[in-house]
Amino acid sequence: MKHITSRENAIYKDTLKLTRKKYRDQKGQFLLEGIKVLKDAASTGARIEGVFLDEQRYERFGKEELPAVFEEQTYLLDSRLFGELSDTEHSQGVVSVAVKPWEDGCSFETLEAGANLVVLDRLQDPGNIGTIIRTAEAAGYAGVIAIKGTGDIYAPKVCRAAAGSLLRMPAVICESAAEAAELLHGLGKKLTVTCLEGATSCFEADLTENIALVIGNEGRGVSRDFMDLADIKVKIPMQGRIESLNAAVAAGILMYQSVGGKF
Questions:
Q1: Can you give the pLDDT at residue 154?
Q2: pLDDT on residue 262
Q3: Regarding beta strands 94-99 and 48-54, do their DSSP bridges make them parallel or antiparallel, or are they unpaired?
Q4: Alpha helix (H) ranges present in the chain?
């Protein structure tokens, strides 16, 4: 295990750049924080380029907690340096560099029959984005499409909320609603959007298979482009004076409603 004490260390400087989206896009890498997600990476065969440990916290979990497969890529960091990499207030003292699993693109050509997908339409809140991706995996969804204008799905806060799901959920970035619709209709998926007018209750609509569930921006909702292209329009019935739900909550309700009796 190598010990890094200088901010001028080349490996450290390259890793620190990954705290910015520009370099995550350029290098096709992102940062994962925590011991559990590192174990997930080991079990799923994800590509990890480096593991960085806070020297002051290392004793808390011990060497036996680290997946042996990454031992040659592990570095012990001065706590001051580690603090610049970490995105959490109470870090476990482990930050890993992961290769974006779908960097070379994903066509969804190997989808199982009837598989559902979730579409992120310009969402911005990293907690919402990560929670939706995590919930999609839990509900048996097969992948994610993010429309240009959506927050970076590999940002640290998104990764933390997704809790490892980014390593397993195929992801595609589309430039526009039209590009996404062409891809999805080619796969036999029905574009399903949420709205209030002219919509069917989600408890009455058939969402069990072959849907692409579009979750809209937190403030503006689903874009007009997606509305015009939609095959199905649904709404979540609400009582009282509530006009809308949090995006991640709404996505969770709809995704589990679409599961039906599959579980």
A1: 96
A2: 66
A3: antiparallel
A4: 10-16, 21-27, 35-44, 58-61, 79-85, 126-138, 156-162, 177-186, 224-229, 247-259
User: Encoding tokens for residue 97?
Assistant: 């560099």
Taking domain 117-259, whether its CATH number is 3.40.1280.10 is answered by yes
Tell me what pLDDT residue 206 has.
92
Question: Which ranges of the chain have pLDDT less than 50?
Answer: none
In 59-123, DSSP assigns E strands to 74-77, 94-99, 117-121
* Residue 104: predicted pLDDT: 55
Distance CA 162, CA 13 (A): 26
The Cα 83–Cα 54 span in angstroms is 8
Fold of 2-99: 60s Ribosomal Protein L30; Chain: A; (3.30.1330)
Given this model, what pLDDT does residue 107 score? 66
Contact 159, 133 (CB under 8 A): no
Q: What is the pLDDT of residue 106?
A: 66
Contact 243, 209 (CB under 8 A): no
Residues 68, 17: Cα–Cα separation, whole Å: 26
Domain parsing of the chain, residue ranges: 2-99, 117-259
Rounded CA gap, 17 and 261, in Å?
Answer: 46
Candidates 192, 196, 202, 194; CA nearest to 242 is 196
Cα dihedral 206, 207, 210, 213 in deg (nearest 10): 140
Quick one: pLDDT at residue 259? 80
Contacts (Cβ under 8 Å, ≥6 apart) of 220: 122
